[in-house]
């Protein structure tokens, strides 16, 4: 079981450090109803992550079991396909463009101040119900998250473990994948007055570096899945 936990840990961390859900959670925590919205988004995110990896793991248990000392070409093909998919997503995400001449400039760094997309700007007026739905959608409908969950599900589902161990591994994946949403929400609930300035600084940094972080993650995990796929033959 510990070997499988080590195999799924990189995929859970890949979901956890994705910048977009962190940006959204920060924006929600800066909204007027931050406590209710933050808890609703965290609940939706956790449910979405758990549901996706649980369903994919249940399907992966029908794949040939990985004995550890022989090839598993079915799992290998799936891992290769997922890895190539992540590389395609990285290519599509990399869109170097010309800086906007009219964009505001940060006087401290001299860099353009990032402008939030319209859907992110609307988060400031969100409600708990919309935050809950948004958390589920961000966790479950994101192509990158689906690929990471599929990679973890293949590792869990083909390991031939009893149901109890599978449940524990799915729970561990869910907790780790939710850490970067859980931590800001938890700290803000505990220290609401002290978190305003750090959250705004984190928001600016994440929005500015969103594309770079996303491309690096997709490249690293795409290569990781391709390597695992090759090793399965």
TrEMBL record:
The keyword Transmembrane applies. InterPro entries: Gap/Sap (IPR021315). The chain crosses the membrane at residues 6-30, 42-62, 74-91, 146-164, 170-191, 211-230. The keyword Iron does not apply. It holds the Pfam family SfLAP. Keywords: Membrane, Transmembrane, Transmembrane helix. This is GAP family protein. It comes from Occultella glacieicola. The lineage of its organism: Bacteria, Bacillati, Actinomycetota, Actinomycetes, Micrococcales.
């Amino acid at each position: 079981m510990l070997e499988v936990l080590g195999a799924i840990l990189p995929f859970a961390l890949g979901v956890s450090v994705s910048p977009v859900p962190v940006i959204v959670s920060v924006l929600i925590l800066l909204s007027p109803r931050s406590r209710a919205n933050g808890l609703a988004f965290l609940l939706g995110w956790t449910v979405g992550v758990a549901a996706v990896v649980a369903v994919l793991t249940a399907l992966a248990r029908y794949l040939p079991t990985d004995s550890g000392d022989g090839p598993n070409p079915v799992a290998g093909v799936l891992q290769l396909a997922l890895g190539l998919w992540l590389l395609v997503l990285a290519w599509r995400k990399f869109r170097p463009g010309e800086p906007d001449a009219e964009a505001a400039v940060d006087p401290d760094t001299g860099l353009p101040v990032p402008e939030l997309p319209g859907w992110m700007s609307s988060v400031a007026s969100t409600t708990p119900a919309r935050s809950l739905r948004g958390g589920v959608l961000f966790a479950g409908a994101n192509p990158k998250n689906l690929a990471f969950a599929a990679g973890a599900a293949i590792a869990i589902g083909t390991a031939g473990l009893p149901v109890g161990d599978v449940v524990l591994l799915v729970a561990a994946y869910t907790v780790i994948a939710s850490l970067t949403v859980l931590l800001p929400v938890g700290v803000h609930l505990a220290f609401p007055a002290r978190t305003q300035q750090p959250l705004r600084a984190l928001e600016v940094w994440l929005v500015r570096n969103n594309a770079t972080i996303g491309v690096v993650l997709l490249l690293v995990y795409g290569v990781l899945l391709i390597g695992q796929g090759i090793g399965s033959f």
